[in-house]
Amino acid sequence: MQKLWETALENGPFVLEFLAVILALFIVGVLLEKAAQKKRGVQEAMFGTRKVVMIGMFSALAMVLMLFEIPVPFAPSFYKLDFSELPILVGAFAFGPMAGVMMEFVKILLKLCVKGTSTAFVGELANFAVGCSFILPASAMYAFRKTKKHAIAACVAGTLVMTVFGTAFNAVYLLPAFAKLFHMPLETILEMGAKVNPLVGENSLLGFVAACVAPLNLLKGASVSLITLFIYKPLSPLIKAGRG
Description:
Layout: H1 2-10, H2 12-40, H3 49-67, E1 70-71, E2 80-81, H4 85-95, H5 97-115, H6 122-144, H7 148-181, H8 186-196, H9 205-240
Antiparallel strand pairs: 1-2
Helix pairs in contact: 2-5, 2-6, 3-4, 3-5, 4-5, 4-6, 4-9, 5-6, 6-7, 7-9
């Protein structure tokens, strides 16, 4: 924890930006959940006792899954596939967009406590923000109308939003921030991508995110969505039993 605190102090401005992103996404989650409840004509507590317990359980499961990363052949080694969004999407379908953001936040917090950070918080910000870009639209669409058809549409929309947002966020913010924090030229990162994926091109940031980042997010969103659509309905009665 001492090392984690020292890293946070060393990268103070970036950590503050991270906290601002967290706050903004919490607000978005609250607004979407309230809008969905109003649309459906229901009034549910934002954080009932069982809901808090379930959020904790799903967050812990997501953190464990986050530790099991799978390398992908089309991207550099620091980009890996994990399935931490699977329990979060299931939980967000059950409890709404706000719960989804909370689970993403608790997942990252638990991961930092257990493993720390090797990326000066850049990787954690990427996982949180890109994860929320998948969870928020998917869970919000499902919250407005809870049918199988809307669940499928929600998963497709969430996957597309995550792919577009994750690609743009990497190009505009994350990759330059990573290069700056680790005092390396951005070209060095682009060269790493070109070595494993010839579609990246020479010193092309656009080529890098299009050939490495976009396929990773598309693969993750599609696989998590597919599994969720198979398991959510059987699990739903257990998750919502005694809901309060």
